[in-house]
Amino acid sequence: MTTNEIKSLDQQYLMATYGRLDIAPKSGKNATMIDADGREYIDFTSGIGVNSLGYCDEGWIKAVEAQLHQIQHMCNYYYCESAAKVGEQLVKLSGLEKVFFGNSGAEANEGAIKLARKYSYDKYGEGRATIITLQSSFHGRTITTLAATGQDVFHQYFYPFTTGFKHVPANDLDALREALTADVCAIMAEPIQGEGGVNMLDTDYIKAVREICDERDILLIFDEVQTGVGRTGKFFAYEHFGILPDIVTLAKGLGGGLPIGAFLGGAKAANTLGGGMHGTTFGANPVVTAGALEVIARVSKPEFLASVTEKGTYLAKALMDKKPSKVKSVRGRGLMLGFQVEGNPKDYLHDCADNGLLVLTAGKDVIRLLPPLTITKEEIDRGVEILANVLK
Ligand SMILES: *Cc1c(COP(=O)(O)O)cnc(C)c1O
Known about the structure:
There is one protein chain. This protein is α/β, with parallel strands linked by helices. Helix content is 37%, strand content 19%. It binds pyridoxal-5'-phosphate. Pyridoxal-5'-phosphate binds at residues 104-106, 109, 138-140, 190, 194-195, 223, 225-226, 251-252.
């Protein structure tokens, strides 16, 4: 089928919830994608940070395929070797203690919210269930994670939302202290806000938040759905701050392209959820976790993580060296980059696509890049050439 044929079929039968581009990706290798009409693109998005090893990585295909030939699904009443092994790796890499597997970022955050509330309920009883999140955050599309999300545009139509969330400005300790009433059980934040604009959190702020949480026995939840699994040059972005959260959520990049979500609990919250308190049919799927195991084996290597940092620096510098006049500032870490631009970033996104480059936007004025962590310098150079021309 041609792109146009696929487009008409999609528009006839799928709900129009996405502002799609006229592109139908058909095949790909690493950061290079070919669409249904045979057009080639450099992909600086990896499907919103999901294809962490790029398109069709050989090692990943082998791992997934081997599992497909054995067992494709078992229910969670049985033990799954690859899921247990992914749990082992995540625990060893994180310094936290136990893992639960779901299927998406929103679900991971839902689980983290349940975990934090149950921890508090066990120790303090009812009335201590409020979770503080940050303005401009994004935590998912379920009714509860929309309520957690600190952006008003997400708080429409679907009333009633789950109660028990308060939003405070990021990097503002006074505002946080003011919001810290006796009913608060957790603080939830992205280490770098993704959808909200690639907004950084100050290390001093996070260290102070960690202290406040310790003093009051409030759980610190990091939503690393976008920042986790090597994206920022550390396996977990919280490693940049030199602190350990109580709960961490993961999803996007963890499966290398297959749907997976996870939440991890540290010393306080590892054993809070017992039999029958949480579950999912698809979570911990053997094929998906076999893919995740390969992603983790590759991405957790120190030299791989160092290459992510190096490539991120290289990309940002390559672009800025071309003095793109529309770019006002650069931020981010590793291969999570935000270029604050003058003008509408959506227009630039379309211009990039017309010229063979896929990018993302974030917030009101940011071009966001989340290339596959395995992107080559040659692919970076080709993408930067196009981006610089669009933003010149
Ligand atoms: C994408 C994202 C989510 C939601 O993940 P889904 O898999 O789409 O449910 C939650 N939090 C953050 C930080 C995200 O980037």
